[in-house]
């Protein structure tokens, strides 16, 4: 395990583990990814520590981890933590995702806004939908149909997005009800709209910062496609062929070189 607060961190919202994970990776990278995937959060996944356990050298492990980063399974960077006293410090992080993520997903992750993925998952009721469906059991005059719950759920979700707890939403919807309640769905829509709390202030600083896998320089996610900065990508790019000089210019330079060599021989003979 790494020092407290460091080491591996699992990315959120991953697909369930299957026997076909990392099937698109080369054998070595797939074996290393499977090993890292099964390590607990907080485990030391540095090159030196992995080399003590896996049958690969540090150079091979460094290359493999960089390829895992390019494939979307790994990102390195720093995360901003705030204490109860208001102080802020940055912690080095290594985020691992069994599910390969593209650059847009990692960019949203650095902002603390993880996009939810619907494919390959059975449909589930949202937290807002569950709260609305339970109102009828707790307060019979507010019984709703399934269609009413689906229509009102986005309004409740907005309350959650603005920091309201379930008890706060439930109290706003059930307190001081008229007698009788003729149209529960219309009443709840009006309350969810009129009593909507203000938006939370946006953070002044990014929550997370990614770093280049090669040189470690921090940068915006859009400047690190595949986890590598532009400078390192250019350094590994194949060199461009040098443009050839026109034939007359080549002959002229050869004549100049020959003339210079002749002068040196004459000077040497006189000496």
Task: Give the gist of this structure.
This protein is α+β, with helices and mostly antiparallel strands and about 270 residues long. The chain has ten helices and five strands; from the N terminus they run E-H-H-H-E-E-H-H-H-H-H-E-E-H-H.
Detailed description of the structure:
This protein has 271 residues and is α+β, with helices and mostly antiparallel strands. The protein has two domains: 1-111 and 206-271, no CATH class; 127-194, no CATH class. It is built from ten helices and five strands. Strand 4 (208-211) and strand 5 (218-219) form a beta hairpin. Helix 2 packs across helix 3 (58-70). It starts with 7 loop residues before the first strand and ends with a helix.
Low-confidence segments, given as residue ranges, are none
Order of helices and strands: EHHHEEHHHHHEEHH
Strand order of the largest sheet: 1-3-2-4-5
Q: Radius of gyration, rounded? A: 31 Å
- Let me know the average pLDDT: 84
Give the termini separation. 76 Å
Sum up the overall morphology in one term. elongated
How would you classify the helix and strand content by structural class? alpha+beta
Itemize the secondary structure elements and their pairings.
Elements: E1 8-10, H1 27-37, H2 47-53, H3 58-70, E2 74-82, E3 88-96, H4 103-110, H5 127-138, H6 146-161, H7 166-174, H8 184-194, E4 208-211, E5 218-219, H9 230-236, H10 247-270
Parallel strand pairs: 1-3
Antiparallel strand pairs: 2-3, 2-4, 4-5
Helix pairs in contact: 1-3, 2-3, 5-6, 6-8
């Amino acid at each position: 395990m790494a020092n407290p607060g460091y080491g591996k961190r699992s990315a959120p919202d991953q697909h369930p583990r299957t026997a076909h994970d990392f099937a698109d990776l080369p054998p070595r990278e797939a074996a290393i990814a499977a090993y890292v995937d099964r390590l607990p959060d907080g485990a030391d996944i540095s090159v030196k520590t992995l080399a003590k356990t896996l049958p690969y050298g540090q150079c091979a492990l460094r290359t493999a981890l960089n390829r895992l980063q390019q494939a979307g399974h790994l990102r390195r960077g720093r995360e901003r933590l705030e204490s109860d006293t208001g102080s802020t410090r940055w912690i080095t992080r290594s985020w691992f995702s069994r599910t390969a993520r593209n650059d847009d997903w990692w960019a949203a992750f650095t902002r603390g806004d993880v996009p939810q993925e619907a494919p390959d998952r059975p449909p589930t009721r949202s937290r807002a939908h569950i709260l609305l469906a339970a109102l009828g059991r707790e307060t019979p005059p507010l019984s709703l149909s399934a269609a009413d719950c689906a229509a009102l759920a986005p309004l409740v979700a907005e309350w959650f997005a603005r920091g309201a707890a379930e008890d706060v939403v439930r109290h706003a919807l059930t307190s001081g009800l008229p007698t009788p309640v003729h149209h529960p769905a219309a009443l709840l829509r009006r309350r969810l709209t009129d009593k909507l709390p203000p938006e939370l202030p946006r953070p002044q600083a990014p929550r997370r910062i990614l770093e280049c896998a090669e040189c470690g320089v921090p940068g915006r996610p859009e400047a690190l496609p595949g986890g590598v900065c532009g400078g390192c990508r250019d350094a590994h790019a194949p060199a461009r062929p040098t443009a050839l000089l026109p034939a007359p210019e080549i002959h002229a330079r050869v004549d100049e070189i020959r003339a210079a060599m002749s002068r040196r021989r004459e000077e040497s003979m006189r000496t």
